[in-house]
Amino acid sequence: MLVKNLLANSVNQVITIATLLVLTPLFLHYWGDQRYGAWLVMVSIPLLLAYADFGSGPVFANHLSLKMEDPSENPEEIFWTGLATQIAFCLLTTSAFLAFMFSHREATGNTQLTVSICMTTYAVLGVLATYITGCSRAIGENHNYTNIGTAIRGTEIIVTALALNLGGDEQTLATSLMANRAIGTALIFLKIKTNKQIFKTGKPKANLGLAKHLIPDSMSFALYPLSLALMLQIPINIINSNFGPVAVALYATTRTLARVPVQFSNIISSSLWPILTKIIGVKEDLHGGAKIIQQANLAIIVFIIIFIPSGLLLGNYIFNLWTAGALKFSPELFAALGIQAGISAVWMNSIMKTISTNSHTRTCLTLSIITILTLSICDAIASEGMTSIIMTLIAGEILMLIAAQYRPLDRKKS
Q1: What is the pLDDT, as a whole number, of residue 95?
Q2: CA 364 to CA 120: how far, in whole Å?
Q3: What digits encode the pLDDT tens for the residues 211-268?
Q4: How many other CB atoms are found less than 10 A from the CB of residue 217?
Q5: pLDDT-derived band of residue 352, with 50, 70 and 90 as boundaries?
Q6: CA angle at residue 297 from 293 to 299, to 5 degrees?
Q7: Are 187 and 132 contacting, i.e. CB atoms less than 8 angstroms apart?
Q8: % of the chain at pLDDT higher than 70
Q9: Are 243 and 259 in contact (CB under 8 A)?
C-alpha cells in the first residue's frame, strides 16, 4: 500500500508543480505581470475558504480510518456525519463572506464579486473532494482517489490555458475553474458511494452525538491548515498594499520555484499518513511512528540541501527562460523563500505524529498564535522592504518547527 500511495502522491504533486510551472508563464504572456499580480490578490481571500469546514474533514476522515475495523462502529454513519458537518460549516462561513463582498460591491466592483463567488465555490468543492479522498484511506483506496484528484488538477491546466488563449477575463476564468472542480468532485463522490465497506445500507444518516464529540477536535485542527493558508495568502496582500501587483507577481513566481521542497514533503507525508494512522493511532506504537517521521525528515533535509544551491546556480537561466524575461530573477528572494519553504516542509512533516491520532489541540493552537504574531509583525515592518517580510516569515516558520515537536501522546502514555 505504501508503494501505491507513494506513486499516486508523487504523480499528484508532480501535476501540482506542473500546473504552477505551466500556468505562470501563460498568465504573464496573456495578462502581463501587473494583471497577473492583481489576479493573485483577487483570489487570495476566497481561496482561504478552502478551510471553511473548520477542520471537520480531516478529523472525521481520520476517525473513520481509526474505527473502520471496529465492529461496534458504523462507518456509513461516520461518513455522512462528517459530510453533513462540513456542508453546515461551509455554508455558514461562505455565506458570511459572500454577504460581506456583496455589501461592498460598489467599492470592490462586480468583477471582484463574481470572482469571489466562483472561487469560493471552487474552494468549498475542493474541501468536499479532499474529505472524500481522506475517507478512502479507511478502505485502502487512497491511491485511486488521489489519482482522480490528479486528473482534476491536470484538466485545470487545459481549462485555464483555453480561457486565457480565447481572451477570457477574470470572471470567465473563475467560472471555468469552478465548473471543472464541480465535475471532479461529483466523480469522486459517485465513486466512493459504490463502496460496500462503508455504505452498507445506502441510506444517508448523520449522528448528532458523534458530531458534537468530534467538532471540538475539528475546531482545533482547523487552526493548523488555516495557519498554513494564512502564511501563504496574507503576505500577498501585505506586499500588494506596500509595493503593488507587480511585486506580488515577482514574489509569487519566485515562491513557486522555491516551494518545490514543500511539494516533495507533501509526497512523503501524504503517502505516510495512512500508515501512521495505523501505527500511531491504532497500535499506539509511538517509537515506530517517530522513527518513520525522522527518516522522512532526513530525506526532506537532504533534498533541500541539494535544491537551494542548485536553484541559486541555475536560477537566473531557468527564471528568464520560464517567464520569457517578463520578470527578473532575484537570488536573494529565491534563497530566502527557499529557506522558508524548507523549514516549512520539515515542520509540516513532523506534525503528522499528532494529527494521526486527532490529538493536536495544543500544537494547533500554538501554530495559530505564532501565525498571527508573525503576520502582524510582517505588516508592521512591510515598509522596510520585501526582504524584511520574508525574514520575519522565516522566524515564524522556525517557531512552528519547534511547536511541531510537541508530543501529547508521550505524556498520555507515561
Answers
A1: 92
A2: 24
A3: 888 887 777 777 777 788 888 889 999 999 999 999 999 999 999 888 877 776 666 6
A4: 21
A5: low
A6: 120
A7: no
A8: 85
A9: no
Q: What is the pLDDT of residues 311-347, one digit of tens each?
A: 899 989 989 999 988 899 999 999 999 898 888 888 8
Contact 220, 361 (CB under 8 A): yes
